[in-house]
Amino acid sequence: MQLTTHNILPCLTTTKLTIVSLFLLFSPSRTTSQACKNTCGTIPIKYPFGTGSGCGDPRFQTRVTCNNQHLTFITHTGSYPVTDIDYSNQIIHITDPSMSTCTCTQPSKGFSLDWDAPFTFHDNTVFALLNCDVTLSPIFKSDRNNDSVSPACDSTSGSRVCERLNSCQAVSRLGIPVSTCCVYAPVDLGPSFEMDLRKLNCESYAGLYGFKELPDNPDAWKYGVAIKYKFNFDNEYPPMCGNCEKSNGVCGYEGPYNSFVCNCRSGINSTTDCLFEATWNGCSKFLHNSNDGLWMYALAWLLTWMLV
Ligand SMILES: *[C@@H]1O[C@H](CO)[C@@H](O)[C@H](O)[C@H]1NC(C)=O
Ligand SMILES: *[C@@H]1O[C@H](CO)[C@@H](O)[C@H](O)[C@H]1NC(C)=O
Asked: Which residue of 53, 66, 254, 258 sits with most ligand 1 atoms within 8 Å of its CB, as the best mutation to test the pocket?
């Protein structure tokens, strides 16, 4: 067959179209398809936490979740906003919207961790149970009659916490005697400890930390709960995950065998790290930062070329 202008034209156009499509496909794009994010709202997310299924350590996935950019801590007693995560000391700070503080008192059902969750209370956490029925509450009974029965009120630093809390305007307005307040040192009680205020015959509670630093200033205490977490039994940071994070990836575990994946910025999952992206990034950074205009110019030129 003879090659004429007539039958070569559609062929050429197809080639041109393909080139333009490829050009558009590889044009720098600022959106990524990364399945696991490294932030939730303003909170940085690192191992063992994750922003979705397959991200972070599976044991943490249902306990700390990211919904609409809100990081939430979940136990059988409720869902609690996470205020921050102290990665170097392995502490999560949460708040409970139903608890009382120096500025506000309200009835609450209590707070508990799940017994099978990888969390414990941090030593700094203090629970002050407020407005308890001294005659009915088992905590007061055990304190008076039998020292060996726990839980019992902490009568040393505890009375100080109760006194100071009672000096807060919101608490003093209730007009309840300091003697109806009981302080728990939850560390001793372990994760299976249930703070069920109805059973304990207490009206509300305040969870706080930062008491040791400023024992006399209840306004300066942080109201919430400080919770410790461990990576695993030996509390060892998985080295694979460390390498993945160093290369800007997010650690995840996927599939029926929870195999390690390093979720990279481009959305590609690697079994090691995301160092391969560094070269791409250099490339696209060049195009983004210095030459967005040039890119558009090149695109316009290509389109013109295609049409002639
Ligand atoms: C990459 O890994 C993440 C996290 O485990 C997963 O959600 C996602 O589906 C994976 N993506 C691909 C393309 O395999
Ligand atoms: C205190 O309680 C413990 C455990 O319930 C019991 O074994 C012990 O006899 C009690 N002591 C007194 C003085 O009642």
From this structure: 254
